[in-house]
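Z., the sequence and structure:
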Amino acid sequence: MDYQYLADLLFPNVTKTPEDMEAQYPPRDLPEGAKVTRFAPSPTGFVHFGGLFPSTIGERLAHQSGGVFLLRIEDTDAKREVEGAAVGLVRTLEHYGIYFDEGAVIGEDGNICDKGAYGPYKQSQRAEIYHVYAKQLVREGKAYPVFTTQAELDALNALDKKAEIKAKDWHEDDGAQKEKMLAARSFTIEEVEAHLAANDPFVLRLLSDGDPEKKIPFTDLIKGKLDIPENDEDFVLLKSDGIPTYHFAHAVDDHLMRTTHVIRGEEWLPSLAKHLMLFRYLGFRLPKYMHIAQIMRLDENGNKKKLSKRDMGANMDDYSRMGYDPACVCEYIMTLLNSNYEEWHMQNPDKPYTEFPFNIKKMSNSGCLFDFKKLNDVSKNIISRMTAEEVYRRATEWANEYDPAFGKLLSHDADYATAIFAIGRGGKKPRKDFATWAEVKGYMGFFYDEIFTVEDAYAEQFDKADIKSALEKFLASYSPADDMNAWFDKIKAVAEEIGYASDMKQYKATPDAFRGSVADVSMFLRVAVTGKLNSPDMYAVMQVLGEDRVRARVQNMIETL
């Protein structure tokens, strides 16, 4: 077979060579040890939590090492592409602090454009590049065409699609498909010329030299040492429309973009043998692979299941609606990525997660468990360390978008709202009242007369006359000018006046000697002022509410009783 002639027949318009490509996309000028990573999603819908996971790894590895993090859009499957998905993807990742040094970015017109010297960064625009390497493989006798006549196409279109898909795997077809593949390797130049003259479409397949009985030793940066059976499948490189498969495109792209580390899900491990063969055939240096474990969740029976796109928490857009701050989500992801992150964070509570020395060796190879409870704990910790001004700004931004009426209340008096958020903030043990901005309204709504309601009732064990008397006596002595000690002394005095213990130790020693305790009196006051049995520090609450609101609410409770 004259492979040079065959290559020219199949790709008559391809004049460039791999050497030309190497010159056009030279090695990057980066510091020693700098990593080049990429996130390469398909624009087929929303960003999955499982997409933020590898993109965070890629961003951390690149930026910690002084390298490059790029975005490549793998849009070769036009049937699955969702309009606007690429733009939405970039905006969502930016929301979670994932920024790319180069690649597909959003231009001034709001559409995806290229930034960087190693593009195009959309695979659909790189067909000419793939064809250069496809022609080279044919020229070297490592790839061959398989033609389909119009009659065969008509027959395929008439097939049951499910049956057609099953028949594609010769391992499940008693070797019939493998025999068909081997038969397709035998053809003449004259047959090729006849097919081309008839305009018959062809796919280009790799001519495998693999033996599945032999193993390839391979080291994955997460899975460790593996023995991979050699690939013996003549898999497709180019589809009949000239568009490459993922296997072929990613090998060419990762080489020319000078990717050093490929981060992808462990579901790609079965394809690894194909990719090892491709890089060997193409003469490319193999990047380092990291096959990360799937993200799991617990179902209603406590069994681990893969986090699917239908599960709550899978769609990253849901987190904004639920009110999770992006910083909290990013920090939670770090706890999943590195087993020592939480220890580091305890030692460095005021440092951002971006200063954490991310380490591949600390990643789990058995899977991470997605847990909303853990996310909420992380969120509460993060928000508790924010300043009152920062909490006000972020909570108001969220409310303006998702709860405009509440956002209007917050925006009406920024100083008042900020003073509310300042209660219990700061110090070694700040309050941890809410995990999401959606919970803020429930936490602080009682500060606003427009949405104030009495949510909790007094326990039936308490005499209404005692409650009423305590509230009346409090009003008679209340002064907003009192400091905390004077304020509480007055509450203790009220307790004594109605026969309640003003000293908790004394009450615990002889509870039957009293009608109740000063804690009960405080509770009477708390429900009257806040409508809740639990609230932030009552003295601080009253100072923020102001005398008029406090007196009005206590008086209203007295009248209600």
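The domain at 464-560 is CATH 1.10.10.350 (Arc Repressor Mutant, subunit A). The two ends are 101 Å apart (CA to CA).

Let me know what you think.
H.
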